[in-house]
Amino acid sequence: MSDFQTIHDLGIHSLVDKLRKFPGYKRDEIIKAESKNAIVSKIDDNLKFVSISGSGIYLEGVHFDLVYTPLQHLGYKLLTAAASHIYAMNGMPVSAQVDIAVPNKISVSMLEKLFEGFDKAGKIYQCAVEPGDITASHQLLVVSIHVNGTVEENDLVSLNGSHPGDQICVSGDLGGAVAGLHVLLREKKEWQESGQDYFQPDLQEYEYVVQRQLMPSARHDLIKALKKSGVKPTSMVDVSQGLVNEVQILSESNKTGCEIFTPAVPVSLEARKVADEMKEDVDRYAFYGGEDFEILFTLKDEDIEKLKAEFDDFSVIGEIKPIDHGIVLNTGEGQSINLSESQVE
């Protein structure tokens, strides 16, 4: 029998756990705070601040499609994705370095458009942007971003701090980004089938979901509200790969179970409209779609109202449970799905 195991079979989160067995040199200033795509190090004992680093690598044809993604939108979105990792640790981004592998089809003016997007996002997130290594690529554009941020040591939040009884919350709404992607893919298909050299679809009625796909916003407003309200989440993770994936990451990291009340999961009317048009299940958009870049976080019961006094763009969608409870989706209709067992109870 072959011992070859695919990354798909193992899963990305489990793969990262395996690779953490090769940590290099042990440095005292590196803080053990489990996070997604980030590392934490102490800047100075006297300052009581820690440095957070987040990164991402993005490949044309895998993570983005230049047929329907303007380069300035791409730059904005990729910095948003990287900054979101910093916000998911209750920190603020400070600087970003962008490395690029560039094929011949990309001109200087096109790269300037890409960096216009980085610049716009940088101004919104108060993050400096610096071009790093630029090298050649045979066919595809590849962009790698490394973002540095800071957070007061006492405010640092990681994946593994929640306990049974904590409330599971999520900012904004979910499923909009994948709804926008489905609209763009439909329009791309129509253009390819038309045989036209130029195609300009009218996307006005899909403006919200298309924007959620092409120019999403990282939730710096939530982080500011947490600071102002004096509330510290017990755990946090950004919703970049779908709600179910992030809930599973939280549960595995905390060695807990959880129960999600599916009627409480926020989904926009625009995303529902697209799902109806596509004859698809909008719950799949919300639970398995990615790139919403909202924040999934857990709070102690007494902190819910304190945060609501400063920030109301979040929903309580479930509760952390003991580990033997498993990961359960409660439909509110007398039926529940235990994702730990992959069966309907």
Q: Helix content range of the residues, please? A: 25-40%
> What form results from the Cα inertia axes?
globular
Task: Sketch the topology as an H/E string, one letter per element.
Answer: HHEEEHEHEEEHHHEHEHHEHEEEE
Q: CATH topology of the largest domain, what is it called? A: Phosphoribosyl-aminoimidazole Synthetase, Chain A, domain 2
How much of the sequence lies in strands comes to 25-35%
Strand order of the largest sheet: 8-10-7-11-9-12-13-14
CATH architecture of the largest domain: Alpha-Beta Complex
Distance between the termini: 35 Å
How many DSSP E strands? 14
Summarize the structure in words.
The chain has 345 residues and is an alpha+beta fold. It has 11 helices and 14 strands. A hairpin with a 6-residue loop joins strand 1 and strand 2. The protein is globular and about 55 Å long. 38% of the residues are buried.
Structure summary:
The protein has helices at residues 7-10, 12-19, 71-87, 108-125, 176-194, 207-214, 220-229, 243-254, 269-278, 282-288, 304-308; strands at 30-31, 38-44, 49-59, 92-102, 128-136, 142-152, 167-171, 235-239, 257-261, 294-299, 314-321, 327-330, 336-338, 343-344.
List the helices and strands and how they pair.
Blueprint: H1 7-10, H2 12-19, E1 30-31, E2 38-44, E3 49-59, H3 71-87, E4 92-102, H4 108-125, E5 128-136, E6 142-152, E7 167-171, H5 176-194, H6 207-214, H7 220-229, E8 235-239, H8 243-254, E9 257-261, H9 269-278, H10 282-288, E10 294-299, H11 304-308, E11 314-321, E12 327-330, E13 336-338, E14 343-344
Parallel strand pairs: 4-5, 9-12
Antiparallel strand pairs: 1-2, 2-3, 3-6, 4-6, 7-10, 7-11, 8-10, 9-11, 12-13, 13-14
Helix pairs in contact: 3-4, 5-6, 5-9
